[in-house]
Amino acid sequence: MKANRKVEGLGFRVQVSRPGIQAFYLKALLMVLVVFAGFAAYADVPPPKNTVQDTTLKVGGGESIGNTYGQPVEMATGMRSSGKIYVVVAVLSMILMGLFIYLFTLDKKISKLEKEK
Amino acid sequence: MAIQHWPTSMMKLSWWKILSIVCLLYAVIGGFLLPVPAKPIVNESIRNLYYHVPMWFSMMIMFFTSVVYAIKYLRNGKLVEDIYAHRFAQTGMVLGILGITTGAMWATFTWGEPWSNDIKQILAAIALLIYAAYFILRGSITDIDKRARVSAVYNIFACAMLFPTLFIIPRMYESLHPGGEGNPAIGRSDVDPKMRLVFWIAVLGWTLLGVWISTLHIRLQKIADKNILNESK
Question: Model pTM greater than 0.90?
Answer without folding.
Answer: no
